[in-house]
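Methods — Computational structure assignment.
A single polypeptide chain was analysed. Its primary sequence is given first, followed by the predicted tertiary structure written as structure tokens.
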Amino acid sequence: MSGAPLPELELSAELVEAAGACKAWPFEEARKIVKRYQRDGYPDEVLFETGYGPSGLPHIGTFGEVARTTMVINAFRILTEDKVKVRLLCFSDDMDGMRKVPGNVPNQEMLKENLGLPLTKVPDPFAGTGDDCHPSFGHHNNAKLRAFLDRFGFSYEFASATEYYKSGRFDEMLRLACHKYQEIMDVMLPTLGEERQATYSPFLPVSPKTGRVLYVPMKAVDAEAGTITFDDEDGTETTLEVTGGNVKLQWKPDFGMRWAALGVDFEMYGKDHQINSNLYDRICRILGARPPEHFIYELFLDNKGEKISKTKGNGLTIEEWLTYAPTESLSLFMYAKPKTAKRLYFDVIPRHVDEYFQHLAAYPGQGAKARLSNPVWHIHSGNPPQTSMPVSFSMLLNLVSASNASDKETLWGFISRYEEGLNAKSNPKLDELVGFAIRYFEDFVKPTKQFRTPSEQERTALKELRSKLSGLPENADGETIQTEIFTVGKEQGYENLREWFQALYQILIGQDQGPRFGSFVALYGIDRTVSLIDAALAGDLG
């Protein structure tokens, strides 16, 4: 495999037994593959595949398929006690013709001039921009994907459609597709409109004259000779062998052909493929193979609730998420509820950072059954690190907000007082979060901060809170402080104490919500919190 080797997995009898009953979705999917071979035994290897369309830069959805498939692989390895060879193939459909120009890349006019060419023949639009120069747009996007997968330490093998078609890896299946041409047409034509039926062919020849991928009807298919005949762009009748990279298949037949040619056992894809899933399976069977097991996940949505798209460039890029949060938080986003449509935007980041560390903190005290259902087992391939996080990410964001800190040193001045011996050197993961919190605050929290003036009831309550806090020792812990805040709220007539705590955040921090306020005060400092209340009462905040 490319990238990192497969990680070592704990294979204790207790863990293997717990895996058999585990309801976590990766185990549910892995059992499909176990059942697939329980009667006749396993082949030399079980092949897992993910697909990537390099018509635009890789986005988080692309990464998600690899991350999630890896989770299924590790579950399968536990179920089979790691006695079956597995392989993950990341397949790039880079021989597809470029049909539209993505809006988030440079040199738009140049790309327009190359519409229709295979992606591995389209010049690299990033050449001369300071980004690495590659032989083509397809090579550029493939390199970006591989670099990211390597960064995460995935164990995978990368495959290029261009290389597979040209090297002859698909030749046998392409010849068979000639013999099965009418059967394939009988499957495809009922799914098309009348106009499209008149011109449809599962074969897409690459024009010998222009190099473009042609969507043209076949004038003849010679199964014995393994050739197709069609009119080229200039009207010239042309005959080509279907082998050697002269021809590729339309994307729906290509799905089934690839499964048949490679012997794929498992592939997941988004809900937008669900309507065509049966077609892929039928093509695979026509070509003499058993379709793989499927897992269909829900699509990611942007902040407007629209499907994210490589060509639109909406939603988040991989790089954007990792600018503001650690990689593990992104993996948690991918693990959680894959069959539920989720917004993939900046505002989901803080919650996933904090939830990741909560799951990590719970892991050491859990039994085998609970561990296999804990997301960190799947995120870390069965070997979660032992890392404590004494301060939450949401707390750090509020600390940055209250202190107006713009550098790590200022924040660490507060944090080091919070817990004895806590410093950047002793807790590098917390130091990493400090940097993320500063960047996230500057870009997303600060522009939306809006302080409000306290009402008369709130002014009275704030004065009482100031008095209570002033009477506490400076080293009072978060629970003690929280109790005092709680008491003030009850005494000041707040029937719903959530409204009281929300008021504190809106008035003192300029946000609607945050972590436990008592813990925040303990971190920020009682004296500084008192000063913050004074500023709010004087109308000096904001």
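Note: The two ends are 55 Å apart (CA to CA).
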